[in-house]
Protein backbone atom coordinates (compact mmCIF):
# COMPACT_ATOMS: atom_id res chain seq x y z
CA UNK A 1 0.00 0.00 0.00
CA UNK A 2 2.68 2.50 1.09
CA UNK A 3 6.34 2.32 0.21
CA UNK A 4 9.00 4.94 0.75
CA UNK A 5 12.34 4.61 -1.01
CA UNK A 6 15.27 6.67 0.23
CA UNK A 7 12.78 9.30 1.30
CA UNK A 8 14.26 12.58 2.48
CA UNK A 9 12.86 15.98 3.36
CA UNK A 10 15.14 18.92 3.99
CA UNK A 11 13.94 22.21 5.47
CA UNK A 12 15.87 25.46 5.38
CA UNK A 13 19.65 25.18 5.43
CA UNK A 14 20.20 21.47 5.20
CA UNK A 15 18.03 20.53 8.17
CA UNK A 16 16.79 16.98 7.61
CA UNK A 17 13.25 16.29 8.80
CA UNK A 18 13.44 12.85 7.14
CA UNK A 19 16.57 11.12 5.86
CA UNK A 20 16.87 8.02 3.68
CA UNK A 21 13.62 6.53 4.96
CA UNK A 22 12.76 3.11 3.57
CA UNK A 23 9.44 1.90 4.86
CA UNK A 24 6.69 -0.44 3.72
CA UNK A 25 3.15 -0.52 5.04
CA UNK A 26 0.88 -3.23 3.71
CA UNK A 27 -2.68 -2.79 2.58
CA UNK A 28 -5.10 -3.10 5.48
CA UNK A 29 -2.37 -2.59 8.08
CA UNK A 30 -2.66 -0.43 11.22
CA UNK A 31 0.63 1.30 11.93
CA UNK A 32 1.69 3.70 14.63
CA UNK A 33 4.35 6.24 13.81
CA UNK A 34 6.06 7.22 17.01
CA UNK A 35 9.09 9.05 18.24
CA UNK A 36 10.00 12.24 20.05
CA UNK A 37 9.00 15.70 18.82
CA UNK A 38 10.89 16.56 15.64
CA UNK A 39 11.44 12.89 14.76
CA UNK A 40 9.66 13.35 11.44
CA UNK A 41 6.24 11.79 12.13
CA UNK A 42 4.19 14.74 10.96
CA UNK A 43 6.52 15.36 8.03
CA UNK A 44 5.96 11.81 6.82
CA UNK A 45 2.18 12.25 7.08
CA UNK A 46 2.37 15.58 5.23
CA UNK A 47 4.32 13.85 2.46
CA UNK A 48 1.73 11.06 2.35
CA UNK A 49 -1.04 13.64 2.08
CA UNK A 50 1.00 15.55 -0.50
CA UNK A 51 0.86 18.73 1.51
CA UNK A 52 4.58 18.79 0.79
CA UNK A 53 6.84 17.18 -1.78
CA UNK A 54 9.89 15.10 -0.84
CA UNK A 55 13.36 16.56 -1.34
CA UNK A 56 14.83 13.13 -1.99
CA UNK A 57 13.52 9.67 -2.81
CA UNK A 58 10.01 8.50 -3.61
CA UNK A 59 6.71 7.81 -1.89
CA UNK A 60 4.64 5.16 -3.60
CA UNK A 61 1.04 4.68 -2.54
CA UNK A 62 -1.13 2.01 -4.16
CA UNK A 63 1.40 1.79 -6.99
CA UNK A 64 1.45 5.55 -7.68
CA UNK A 65 4.62 7.55 -7.22
CA UNK A 66 3.33 10.63 -5.45
CA UNK A 67 6.28 12.77 -6.58
CA UNK A 68 5.14 12.46 -10.18
CA UNK A 69 1.50 13.36 -9.78
CA UNK A 70 0.16 16.44 -11.53
CA UNK A 71 -1.92 18.98 -9.61
CA UNK A 72 -5.19 17.41 -10.73
CA UNK A 73 -3.89 13.92 -9.97
CA UNK A 74 -2.94 15.09 -6.48
CA UNK A 75 -6.57 16.09 -5.88
CA UNK A 76 -7.78 12.75 -7.27
CA UNK A 77 -5.31 10.91 -4.98
CA UNK A 78 -6.49 12.87 -1.93
CA UNK A 79 -10.03 11.65 -2.57
CA UNK A 80 -8.78 8.19 -1.61
CA UNK A 81 -7.20 9.38 1.65
CA UNK A 82 -8.89 10.41 4.89
CA UNK A 83 -7.09 12.65 7.36
CA UNK A 84 -7.51 13.47 11.03
CA UNK A 85 -5.56 16.20 12.81
CA UNK A 86 -4.85 16.95 16.44
CA UNK A 87 -6.68 20.30 16.19
CA UNK A 88 -9.68 18.70 14.40
CA UNK A 89 -9.77 21.38 11.67
CA UNK A 90 -13.54 21.73 11.80
CA UNK A 91 -15.27 24.72 10.21
CA UNK A 92 -16.60 26.78 13.10
CA UNK A 93 -19.51 28.28 11.16
CA UNK A 94 -20.91 24.93 10.03
CA UNK A 95 -22.92 22.38 11.98
CA UNK A 96 -21.69 18.85 12.63
CA UNK A 97 -23.74 17.58 9.71
CA UNK A 98 -22.51 20.36 7.39
CA UNK A 99 -18.88 19.82 8.38
CA UNK A 100 -19.09 16.19 7.32
CA UNK A 101 -21.28 16.61 4.24
CA UNK A 102 -19.04 19.47 3.06
CA UNK A 103 -16.39 16.88 2.14
CA UNK A 104 -18.90 15.30 -0.26
CA UNK A 105 -20.52 18.52 -1.44
CA UNK A 106 -17.23 19.88 -2.78
CA UNK A 107 -16.75 16.67 -4.73
CA UNK A 108 -20.01 17.30 -6.57
CA UNK A 109 -21.93 14.43 -5.03
CA UNK A 110 -25.75 14.54 -5.41
CA UNK A 111 -27.47 16.04 -2.35
CA UNK A 112 -29.49 12.93 -1.47
CA UNK A 113 -26.36 10.78 -1.48
CA UNK A 114 -24.50 13.38 0.59
CA UNK A 115 -27.26 13.32 3.23
CA UNK A 116 -27.48 9.55 3.38
CA UNK A 117 -23.76 8.95 3.69
CA UNK A 118 -23.24 11.79 6.14
CA UNK A 119 -25.97 10.49 8.41
CA UNK A 120 -24.64 6.93 8.21
CA UNK A 121 -21.10 7.90 9.15
CA UNK A 122 -22.22 10.25 11.94
CA UNK A 123 -24.34 7.45 13.33
CA UNK A 124 -21.33 5.16 13.11
CA UNK A 125 -19.22 7.51 15.25
CA UNK A 126 -22.16 7.94 17.65
CA UNK A 127 -23.05 11.55 16.90
CA UNK A 128 -26.46 11.16 15.31
CA UNK A 129 -27.92 13.21 18.17
CA UNK A 130 -25.59 16.19 17.58
CA UNK A 131 -26.21 16.77 13.87
CA UNK A 132 -27.18 20.44 14.27
CA UNK A 133 -24.60 21.38 16.89
CA UNK A 134 -21.71 23.67 16.06
CA UNK A 135 -18.15 22.57 16.86
CA UNK A 136 -17.85 24.95 19.82
CA UNK A 137 -20.83 23.21 21.44
CA UNK A 138 -19.04 19.85 21.41
CA UNK A 139 -16.48 18.26 23.71
CA UNK A 140 -12.97 17.54 22.42
CA UNK A 141 -13.78 13.87 21.94
CA UNK A 142 -16.95 14.70 20.03
CA UNK A 143 -15.09 17.18 17.81
CA UNK A 144 -12.52 14.52 17.00
CA UNK A 145 -15.29 12.07 16.18
CA UNK A 146 -16.72 14.61 13.75
CA UNK A 147 -13.26 14.91 12.17
CA UNK A 148 -13.08 11.11 11.91
CA UNK A 149 -16.55 11.02 10.35
CA UNK A 150 -15.42 13.59 7.78
CA UNK A 151 -12.32 11.50 7.06
CA UNK A 152 -14.43 8.39 6.50
CA UNK A 153 -17.42 9.81 4.64
CA UNK A 154 -15.73 9.48 1.27
CA UNK A 155 -14.81 5.83 2.00
CA UNK A 156 -11.03 6.22 1.74
CA UNK A 157 -8.54 3.37 1.30
CA UNK A 158 -6.08 5.04 3.63
CA UNK A 159 -6.64 7.05 6.82
CA UNK A 160 -3.86 9.25 8.17
CA UNK A 161 -4.07 10.68 11.67
CA UNK A 162 -1.61 13.14 13.17
CA UNK A 163 -1.70 13.06 16.98
CA UNK A 164 -5.48 12.51 16.94
CA UNK A 165 -5.64 12.16 20.72
CA UNK A 166 -3.15 14.94 21.51
CA UNK A 167 -5.89 17.21 22.88
CA UNK A 168 -7.93 14.51 24.62
CA UNK A 169 -7.91 12.93 28.05
CA UNK A 170 -7.00 9.20 28.37
CA UNK A 171 -10.59 7.91 28.34
CA UNK A 172 -11.52 9.86 25.24
CA UNK A 173 -8.23 8.82 23.62
CA UNK A 174 -9.15 5.17 24.06
CA UNK A 175 -12.58 5.86 22.62
CA UNK A 176 -11.03 7.47 19.53
CA UNK A 177 -8.50 4.64 19.16
CA UNK A 178 -11.36 2.16 19.22
CA UNK A 179 -12.85 3.99 16.28
CA UNK A 180 -9.55 3.70 14.39
CA UNK A 181 -9.44 0.00 15.18
CA UNK A 182 -12.94 -0.41 13.80
CA UNK A 183 -12.00 1.54 10.69
CA UNK A 184 -9.02 -0.75 10.20
CA UNK A 185 -11.18 -3.81 10.79
CA UNK A 186 -13.18 -2.89 7.71
CA UNK A 187 -10.01 -3.18 5.61
CA UNK A 188 -8.85 0.44 5.54
CA UNK A 189 -5.14 1.06 6.02
CA UNK A 190 -4.61 3.29 9.06
CA UNK A 191 -1.47 5.26 9.92
CA UNK A 192 -1.54 7.10 13.25
CA UNK A 193 1.26 9.37 14.43
CA UNK A 194 1.42 9.58 18.21
CA UNK A 195 3.93 9.75 21.02
CA UNK A 196 1.51 8.24 23.54
CA UNK A 197 3.20 4.96 24.50
CA UNK A 198 0.31 3.83 26.71
CA UNK A 199 -2.10 4.15 23.84
CA UNK A 200 0.19 2.22 21.50
CA UNK A 201 0.48 -0.56 24.08
CA UNK A 202 -3.27 -0.63 24.58
CA UNK A 203 -4.11 -0.85 20.85
CA UNK A 204 -1.25 -3.25 20.21
CA UNK A 205 -0.32 -2.83 16.57
CA UNK A 206 2.85 -2.44 14.53
CA UNK A 207 4.98 0.52 15.59
CA UNK A 208 7.38 2.46 13.36
CA UNK A 209 9.81 4.33 15.56
CA UNK A 210 11.38 7.47 14.08
CA UNK A 211 14.32 9.40 15.45
CA UNK A 212 15.99 12.37 13.78
CA UNK A 213 14.09 11.59 10.60
CA UNK A 214 15.29 8.01 10.38
CA UNK A 215 13.97 4.59 11.34
CA UNK A 216 15.00 3.67 14.83
CA UNK A 217 13.78 0.09 14.44
CA UNK A 218 10.55 -1.73 13.79
CA UNK A 219 9.44 -3.11 17.13
CA UNK A 220 6.41 -5.31 16.79
CA UNK A 221 3.80 -4.76 19.46
CA UNK A 222 1.59 -7.70 20.33
CA UNK A 223 -1.34 -7.98 17.90
CA UNK B 1 -24.67 19.91 -7.56
CA UNK B 2 -22.47 20.97 -10.44
CA UNK B 3 -19.33 23.03 -10.01
CA UNK B 4 -21.03 26.02 -11.64
CA UNK B 5 -24.06 25.77 -9.35
CA UNK B 6 -21.83 25.45 -6.31
CA UNK B 7 -19.69 28.41 -7.45
CA UNK B 8 -22.72 30.68 -7.92
CA UNK B 9 -24.29 29.64 -4.62
CA UNK B 10 -21.10 30.25 -2.65
CA UNK B 11 -20.27 33.46 -4.54
CA UNK B 12 -23.71 34.92 -3.88
CA UNK B 13 -23.44 34.03 -0.18
CA UNK B 14 -20.01 35.63 -0.10
CA UNK B 15 -21.18 38.85 -1.78
CA UNK B 16 -24.00 39.11 0.77
CA UNK B 17 -21.56 38.47 3.60
CA UNK B 18 -19.11 41.05 2.25
CA UNK B 19 -21.82 43.75 2.45
CA UNK B 20 -20.16 47.15 2.51
CA UNK B 21 -16.88 46.07 0.88
CA UNK B 22 -18.86 44.48 -1.96
CA UNK B 23 -20.81 47.74 -2.34
CA UNK B 24 -17.53 49.71 -2.50
CA UNK B 25 -16.21 47.40 -5.16
CA UNK B 26 -19.45 47.65 -7.20
CA UNK B 27 -19.23 51.43 -6.79
CA UNK B 28 -15.68 51.69 -8.10
CA UNK B 29 -16.54 49.56 -11.11
CA UNK B 30 -19.62 51.70 -11.69
CA UNK B 31 -17.51 54.90 -11.60
CA UNK B 32 -15.14 53.47 -14.20
CA UNK B 33 -18.01 52.42 -16.41
CA UNK B 34 -19.93 55.67 -15.97
CA UNK B 35 -16.79 57.45 -17.23
CA UNK B 36 -16.46 55.07 -20.15
CA UNK B 37 -20.17 55.00 -20.94
CA UNK B 38 -20.50 58.77 -20.53
CA UNK B 39 -17.74 59.40 -23.02
CA UNK B 40 -19.26 56.77 -25.29
CA UNK B 41 -22.65 58.47 -25.09
CA UNK B 42 -21.19 61.93 -25.81
CA UNK B 43 -19.02 60.65 -28.62
CA UNK B 44 -21.91 58.70 -30.20
CA UNK B 45 -24.02 61.86 -30.28
CA UNK B 46 -21.20 64.16 -31.40
CA UNK B 47 -20.29 61.68 -34.11
CA UNK B 48 -23.91 61.59 -35.25
CA UNK B 49 -23.93 65.39 -35.57
CA UNK B 50 -20.58 65.39 -37.35
CA UNK B 51 -21.74 62.72 -39.77
CA UNK B 52 -24.81 64.79 -40.56
CA UNK B 53 -22.70 67.88 -41.10
CA UNK B 54 -20.20 65.94 -43.18
CA UNK B 55 -22.95 64.58 -45.39
CA UNK B 56 -24.28 68.06 -46.06
CA UNK B 57 -20.82 69.58 -46.52
CA UNK B 58 -20.53 71.63 -49.65
CA UNK B 59 -17.80 73.30 -51.60
CA UNK B 60 -18.54 76.83 -52.69
CA UNK B 61 -16.75 78.05 -55.81
CA UNK B 62 -17.08 81.84 -55.98
CA UNK B 63 -16.79 83.41 -59.40
CA UNK B 64 -15.47 86.75 -60.64
CA UNK B 65 -18.21 89.17 -61.67
CA UNK B 66 -16.73 89.56 -65.13
CA UNK B 67 -16.76 85.86 -65.91
CA UNK B 68 -17.90 85.13 -69.45
CA UNK B 69 -20.73 82.73 -70.17
CA UNK B 70 -18.33 80.49 -72.04
CA UNK B 71 -15.90 80.23 -69.12
CA UNK B 72 -18.74 79.62 -66.72
CA UNK B 73 -20.11 76.76 -68.83
CA UNK B 74 -16.60 75.31 -69.13
CA UNK B 75 -16.14 75.50 -65.37
CA UNK B 76 -19.48 73.80 -64.74
CA UNK B 77 -18.57 71.03 -67.17
CA UNK B 78 -15.21 70.62 -65.45
CA UNK B 79 -16.92 70.28 -62.06
CA UNK B 80 -19.45 67.73 -63.30
CA UNK B 81 -16.64 65.57 -64.66
CA UNK B 82 -14.90 65.25 -61.30
CA UNK B 83 -15.40 61.93 -59.46
CA UNK B 84 -15.53 63.68 -56.09
CA UNK B 85 -18.50 65.77 -57.20
CA UNK B 86 -22.03 64.48 -56.62
CA UNK B 87 -24.03 67.52 -57.79
CA UNK B 88 -23.44 71.06 -59.01
CA UNK B 89 -25.79 74.00 -58.75
CA UNK B 90 -25.14 77.42 -60.25
CA UNK B 91 -26.37 80.35 -58.18
CA UNK B 92 -26.23 83.62 -60.08
CA UNK B 93 -25.53 86.98 -58.40
CA UNK B 94 -29.22 87.86 -58.63
CA UNK B 95 -30.35 84.59 -57.11
CA UNK B 96 -27.81 84.88 -54.33
CA UNK B 97 -29.23 88.29 -53.46
CA UNK B 98 -32.80 86.98 -53.54
CA UNK B 99 -31.86 84.10 -51.31
CA UNK B 100 -30.25 86.45 -48.81
CA UNK B 101 -33.32 88.66 -48.74
CA UNK B 102 -35.56 85.66 -48.21
CA UNK B 103 -33.37 84.17 -45.50
CA UNK B 104 -32.69 87.42 -43.65
CA UNK B 105 -35.68 89.75 -44.16
CA UNK B 106 -34.62 91.80 -41.11
CA UNK B 107 -31.43 92.79 -42.99
CA UNK B 108 -33.31 94.10 -46.03
CA UNK B 109 -32.03 97.63 -45.36
CA UNK B 110 -28.44 96.54 -45.78
CA UNK B 111 -29.07 95.22 -49.29
CA UNK B 112 -30.94 98.31 -50.40
CA UNK B 113 -28.29 100.62 -48.96
CA UNK B 114 -25.61 99.42 -51.36
CA UNK B 115 -25.78 100.50 -54.97
CA UNK B 116 -24.58 97.28 -56.49
CA UNK B 117 -25.36 93.63 -55.81
CA UNK B 118 -22.51 92.62 -53.43
CA UNK B 119 -23.03 88.87 -53.81
CA UNK B 120 -20.82 86.94 -56.20
CA UNK B 121 -22.12 84.17 -58.45
CA UNK B 122 -21.26 80.77 -57.03
CA UNK B 123 -21.19 77.10 -57.93
CA UNK B 124 -22.51 75.13 -54.95
CA UNK B 125 -20.88 71.76 -55.23
CA UNK B 126 -22.14 68.78 -53.25
CA UNK B 127 -19.39 66.24 -52.75
CA UNK B 128 -19.57 62.50 -52.59
CA UNK B 129 -19.18 61.26 -48.98
CA UNK B 130 -18.63 57.57 -49.60
CA UNK B 131 -15.35 56.14 -50.84
CA UNK B 132 -13.74 59.57 -51.14
CA UNK B 133 -10.57 60.41 -49.31
CA UNK B 134 -9.39 63.87 -48.42
CA UNK B 135 -6.77 63.94 -51.19
CA UNK B 136 -9.43 63.77 -53.95
CA UNK B 137 -11.10 66.87 -52.53
CA UNK B 138 -7.73 68.57 -52.09
CA UNK B 139 -6.91 67.85 -55.74
CA UNK B 140 -10.23 69.34 -56.78
CA UNK B 141 -9.63 72.47 -54.70
CA UNK B 142 -6.15 72.92 -56.17
CA UNK B 143 -7.47 72.33 -59.69
CA UNK B 144 -10.21 74.93 -59.26
CA UNK B 145 -7.90 77.56 -57.78
CA UNK B 146 -5.78 77.46 -60.97
CA UNK B 147 -8.71 77.98 -63.33
CA UNK B 148 -9.68 81.33 -64.77
CA UNK B 149 -12.76 83.12 -63.40
CA UNK B 150 -12.58 81.50 -59.94
CA UNK B 151 -12.37 84.15 -57.21
CA UNK B 152 -12.33 81.83 -54.19
CA UNK B 153 -12.97 78.26 -53.13
CA UNK B 154 -14.51 77.58 -49.71
CA UNK B 155 -14.69 74.11 -48.42
CA UNK B 156 -16.29 73.76 -44.96
CA UNK B 157 -15.44 70.11 -44.67
CA UNK B 158 -11.87 70.81 -43.67
CA UNK B 159 -12.75 72.11 -40.23
CA UNK B 160 -15.25 69.31 -39.84
CA UNK B 161 -12.48 66.83 -40.56
CA UNK B 162 -10.33 68.60 -37.99
CA UNK B 163 -13.22 68.44 -35.52
CA UNK B 164 -13.61 64.74 -36.22
CA UNK B 165 -9.91 64.33 -35.45
CA UNK B 166 -10.36 66.16 -32.15
CA UNK B 167 -13.36 63.99 -31.27
CA UNK B 168 -11.34 60.85 -32.09
CA UNK B 169 -8.47 62.07 -29.88
CA UNK B 170 -10.91 62.84 -27.08
CA UNK B 171 -12.36 59.38 -27.49
CA UNK B 172 -8.92 57.78 -27.22
CA UNK B 173 -8.13 59.89 -24.14
CA UNK B 174 -11.46 58.83 -22.61
CA UNK B 175 -10.69 55.19 -23.32
CA UNK B 176 -7.30 55.57 -21.61
CA UNK B 177 -8.86 57.27 -18.56
CA UNK B 178 -11.58 54.62 -18.41
CA UNK B 179 -8.91 51.92 -18.74
CA UNK B 180 -6.98 53.33 -15.79
CA UNK B 181 -10.18 53.61 -13.74
CA UNK B 182 -11.10 50.08 -14.69
CA UNK B 183 -7.70 48.83 -13.58
CA UNK B 184 -8.32 50.52 -10.24
CA UNK B 185 -11.76 48.92 -10.09
CA UNK B 186 -10.26 45.52 -10.89
CA UNK B 187 -7.83 45.94 -7.98
CA UNK B 188 -10.74 46.77 -5.67
CA UNK B 189 -12.65 43.68 -6.82
CA UNK B 190 -9.52 41.59 -6.32
CA UNK B 191 -9.13 42.99 -2.80
CA UNK B 192 -12.75 42.12 -1.94
CA UNK B 193 -12.35 38.63 -3.37
CA UNK B 194 -9.13 38.22 -1.37
CA UNK B 195 -11.02 39.21 1.78
CA UNK B 196 -13.62 36.52 1.20
CA UNK B 197 -10.84 34.08 0.39
CA UNK B 198 -9.25 34.92 3.73
CA UNK B 199 -12.61 34.50 5.48
CA UNK B 200 -13.02 31.07 3.91
CA UNK B 201 -9.42 29.92 4.46
CA UNK B 202 -10.47 27.03 6.72
CA UNK B 203 -12.95 25.77 4.11
CA UNK B 204 -10.36 26.05 1.36
CA UNK B 205 -7.85 24.05 3.40
CA UNK B 206 -10.42 21.30 3.91
CA UNK B 207 -11.39 21.38 0.23
CA UNK B 208 -7.79 20.90 -0.75
CA UNK B 209 -7.31 18.07 1.70
CA UNK B 210 -10.41 16.16 0.59
CA UNK B 211 -9.31 16.49 -3.04
CA UNK B 212 -11.97 18.89 -4.28
CA UNK B 213 -11.53 19.76 -7.96
CA UNK B 214 -9.94 23.17 -8.57
CA UNK B 215 -13.17 24.34 -10.23
CA UNK B 216 -14.85 23.95 -6.83
CA UNK B 217 -11.98 25.61 -4.97
CA UNK B 218 -11.46 28.62 -7.22
CA UNK B 219 -14.83 28.79 -8.98
CA UNK B 220 -16.70 30.69 -6.23
CA UNK B 221 -14.07 33.45 -6.17
CA UNK B 222 -14.06 33.87 -9.94
CA UNK B 223 -17.86 34.01 -9.93
CA UNK B 224 -17.76 36.50 -7.04
CA UNK B 225 -15.59 38.80 -9.17
CA UNK B 226 -17.94 38.21 -12.10
CA UNK B 227 -20.99 39.20 -10.04
CA UNK B 228 -19.31 42.32 -8.64
CA UNK B 229 -18.13 43.39 -12.10
CA UNK B 230 -21.49 42.74 -13.76
CA UNK B 231 -23.36 44.56 -10.99
CA UNK B 232 -20.95 47.52 -11.29
CA UNK B 233 -21.51 47.78 -15.03
CA UNK B 234 -25.30 47.47 -14.62
CA UNK B 235 -25.31 50.24 -11.98
CA UNK B 236 -23.20 52.37 -14.35
CA UNK B 237 -25.66 51.83 -17.20
CA UNK B 238 -28.51 52.87 -14.92
CA UNK B 239 -26.63 55.99 -13.79
CA UNK B 240 -25.82 56.94 -17.37
CA UNK B 241 -29.51 56.55 -18.22
CA UNK B 242 -30.48 58.87 -15.37
CA UNK B 243 -27.78 61.40 -16.36
CA UNK B 244 -28.84 61.20 -20.01
CA UNK B 245 -32.42 61.93 -19.21
CA UNK B 246 -31.45 64.81 -16.86
CA UNK B 247 -29.07 66.37 -19.41
CA UNK B 248 -31.65 65.97 -22.18
CA UNK B 249 -34.22 67.84 -20.07
CA UNK B 250 -31.69 70.51 -19.09
CA UNK B 251 -30.54 71.18 -22.65
CA UNK B 252 -34.06 71.16 -24.02
CA UNK B 253 -34.80 71.00 -27.74
CA UNK B 254 -32.87 74.23 -28.53
CA UNK B 255 -29.33 72.93 -28.30
CA UNK B 256 -30.10 69.62 -29.94
CA UNK B 257 -31.96 71.46 -32.68
CA UNK B 258 -29.04 73.86 -33.15
CA UNK B 259 -26.71 70.90 -33.53
CA UNK B 260 -29.04 69.57 -36.19
CA UNK B 261 -29.14 66.26 -34.44
CA UNK B 262 -32.92 66.12 -34.13
CA UNK B 263 -32.65 64.60 -30.66
CA UNK B 264 -30.04 63.09 -28.37
CA UNK B 265 -29.56 59.36 -28.67
CA UNK B 266 -28.94 56.95 -25.77
CA UNK B 267 -26.46 54.10 -26.00
CA UNK B 268 -27.61 51.34 -28.29
CA UNK B 269 -28.18 47.72 -27.32
CA UNK B 270 -24.72 46.86 -28.65
CA UNK B 271 -22.98 49.45 -26.42
CA UNK B 272 -25.06 48.35 -23.42
CA UNK B 273 -24.20 44.69 -23.95
CA UNK B 274 -20.52 45.58 -24.43
CA UNK B 275 -20.53 47.50 -21.13
CA UNK B 276 -22.14 44.64 -19.19
CA UNK B 277 -19.84 42.06 -20.77
CA UNK B 278 -16.90 44.36 -20.05
CA UNK B 279 -17.90 44.57 -16.38
CA UNK B 280 -18.28 40.81 -16.17
CA UNK B 281 -14.90 40.32 -17.84
CA UNK B 282 -13.08 42.81 -15.60
CA UNK B 283 -14.66 41.25 -12.48
CA UNK B 284 -13.94 37.69 -13.56
CA UNK B 285 -10.34 38.56 -14.41
CA UNK B 286 -9.86 40.20 -11.01
CA UNK B 287 -11.48 37.20 -9.31
CA UNK B 288 -9.27 34.81 -11.26
CA UNK B 289 -6.10 36.64 -10.26
CA UNK B 290 -7.20 36.94 -6.63
CA UNK B 291 -8.17 33.26 -6.39
CA UNK B 292 -4.76 32.05 -7.49
CA UNK B 293 -3.65 31.84 -3.88
CA UNK B 294 -6.47 29.34 -3.25
CA UNK B 295 -4.82 26.75 -5.47
Could you characterize what this model shows?
The complex is a heterodimer of chains A (223) and B (295). With 223 residues, chain A is of the alpha/beta class. Chain A contains seven helices and ten strands. Chain A has a six-stranded mixed beta sheet, with helices on both faces. Chain A has a four-stranded antiparallel beta sheet with strand order 2-1-4-5, covered by helices on one side. Chain A starts with a strand and ends in a 6-residue tail after the last strand. The C terminus of chain A is likely disordered. Chain B has a four-stranded antiparallel beta sheet with strand order 2-3-1-4. In chain B, helix 1 crosses helix 9 and helix 7 runs antiparallel to helix 9. Chain B folds into two domains: 185 residues, no CATH class; 98 residues, Alpha-Beta Plaits, CATH 3.30.70.3040. Chain B is elongated, with a radius of gyration of 31 Å. Chain B contains ten helices and four strands; from the N terminus they run ααβαβααβαβαααα. The mean pLDDT of chain B is 82. Chain B is α+β, with helices and mostly antiparallel strands. The chains are: A alpha/beta (223), B alpha+beta (295). Chains A and B meet through helix 2 and helix 3 of A and helix 8 and helix 9 of B.
Write the layout of secondary structure elements.
The complex is a heterodimer of chains A (223) and B (295).
Chain A: E1 2-11, E2 15-25, E3 30-34, H1 41-48, E4 56-61, E5 64-65, H2 71-78, E6 81-85, H3 96-105, H4 111-124, H5 140-152, E7 158-162, H6 170-185, E8 189-193, H7 197-203, E9 206-211, E10 214-217
Parallel strand pairs in A: 3-8, 3-9, 6-7, 7-8
Antiparallel strand pairs in A: 1-2, 1-4, 4-5, 9-10
Helix pairs in contact in A: 3-4, 3-5, 4-5, 5-6
Chain B: H1 3-18, H2 20-55, E1 58-63, H3 69-81, E2 85-91, H4 93-103, H5 108-113, E3 122-127, H6 134-145, E4 150-155, H7 157-199, H8 201-209, H9 214-258, H10 269-290
Helix pairs in contact in B: 1-9, 2-7, 2-9, 7-9, 7-10, 9-10
Amino acid sequence: MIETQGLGKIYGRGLYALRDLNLTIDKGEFVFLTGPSGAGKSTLLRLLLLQERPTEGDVIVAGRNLSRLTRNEVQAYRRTVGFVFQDFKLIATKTVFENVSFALRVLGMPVEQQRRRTYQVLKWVGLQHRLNSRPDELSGGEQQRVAIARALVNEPHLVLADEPTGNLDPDLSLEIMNLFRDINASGTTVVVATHDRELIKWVGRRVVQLEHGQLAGLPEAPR
Amino acid sequence: MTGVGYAFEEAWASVRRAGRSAAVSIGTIAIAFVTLGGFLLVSVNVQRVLDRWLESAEMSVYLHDDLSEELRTGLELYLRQQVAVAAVEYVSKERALERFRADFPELLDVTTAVAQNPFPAVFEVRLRTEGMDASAVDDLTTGLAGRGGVADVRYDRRWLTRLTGIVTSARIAAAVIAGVLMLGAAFTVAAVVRLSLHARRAEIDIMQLVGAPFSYIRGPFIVEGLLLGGAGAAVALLLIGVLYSAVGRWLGPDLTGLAGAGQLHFLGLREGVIMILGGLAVGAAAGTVASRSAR
